[in-house]
DNA sequence: TTTTTTGTCTTTTTT
């Protein structure tokens, strides 16, 4: 029997289709059926205090039991294996549909602690299990390691639409409740990070 | 023009 060789380090996608974006990034209070996480990222290199665009792309969690991997870990392994140099300073920005689970948050926090040359900003559309203290603790540990954790606002959705969606020249169409949901999530996040 | 009990990166072994 031949050993099966599988790639445990998926490469990022270039962009996603509009219906995927609208479904997975909608910041609903009760987001039924969003049992996937999408993560859009930009990596910039800081040169003389100025961020210079480097790479960008989209990850989705791997559901295949063999390669099962949350989106954040997909990013980390890709980043560590492809881009990361200890001699450079990076600004990494994530736009995620769900905020990280405690395990991923812990790993990312640890990664940040070990890589002082990497700054991370996370914009999340929705907070994952935000009433659960373990999940809250996860977000705090990220924050304590210097990651900036924020809720996606209109401008962030629009930015994602323009940079990570095959938008065919169509403008971003806001959904009703976007701003109200944003405010409510911001309030929750503020309480968590206090 | 502020008020909450919850949406989930799906579940691993049996016919």
UniProtKB/TrEMBL annotation:
Annotated organism of origin: Rhinopithecus bieti (Black snub-nosed monkey)
Listed GO CC annotations: nucleus; P-body
Family statement drawn from the similarity comment of this UniProt entry: Belongs to the cytidine and deoxycytidylate deaminase family.
Upper taxonomic lineage: Eukaryota, Metazoa, Chordata, Craniata, Vertebrata
UniProt superkingdom: Eukaryota
Main location group: cytoplasm
Annotated Pfam families: NAD2
Gene Ontology terms: biological process: cytidine to uridine editing; defense response to virus; DNA cytosine deamination; innate immune response; negative regulation of single stranded viral RNA replication via double stranded DNA intermediate
EC assignment: 3.5.4.38
Keywords from the UniProt entry: Antiviral defense, Cytoplasm, Hydrolase, Immunity, Innate immunity, Metal-binding, Repeat, Zinc
Domain CMP/dCMP-type deaminase as annotated: residue spans: 1-142
EC top class, as a word: hydrolase
Subcellular location field: Cytoplasm, P-body
UniProt cross-references to PROSITE patterns, sorted A to Z: CYT_DCMP_DEAMINASES_1 (PS00903), CYT_DCMP_DEAMINASES_2 (PS51747)
Catalysis performed (reactions): a 2'-deoxycytidine in single-stranded DNA + H2O + H(+) = a 2'-deoxyuridine in single-stranded DNA + NH4(+)
CDD domains: cytidine_deaminase
Cofactor: Zn(2+)
Designated name of the protein: DNA dC->dU-editing enzyme APOBEC-3G
MF GO annotations: cytidine deaminase activity; RNA binding; zinc ion binding
């Amino acid at each position: 029997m031949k050993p099966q060789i599988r790639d445990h380090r998926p490469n990022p996608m270039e962009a996603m289709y509009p219906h995927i974006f609208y479904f997975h990034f909608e910041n609903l209070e009760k987001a039924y059926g969003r049992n996937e996480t999408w993560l859009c990222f930009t990596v910039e290199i800081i040169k003389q205090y100025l961020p210079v665009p480097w790479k960008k792309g989209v990850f989705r969690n791997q559901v295949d039991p063999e390669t099962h991997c949350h989106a954040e870990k997909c990013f980390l392994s890709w980043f560590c294996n492809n881009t990361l140099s200890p001699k450079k300073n990076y600004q990494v920005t994530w736009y995620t549909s769900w905020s990280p689970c405690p395990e991923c948050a812990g790993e990312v926090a640890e990664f940040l602690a070990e890589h002082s040359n990497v700054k991370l900003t996370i914009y999340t559309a929705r907070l994952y299990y935000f009433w659960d203290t373990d999940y809250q603790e996860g977000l705090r540990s990220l924050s304590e390691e210097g990651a900036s954790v924020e809720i996606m606002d209109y401008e962030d959705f629009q930015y994602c639409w323009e940079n990570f969606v095959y938008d065919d020249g169509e403008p971003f169409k806001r959904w009703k409740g976007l701003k109200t949901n944003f405010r409510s999530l911001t309030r929750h996040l503020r309480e968590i990070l206090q």
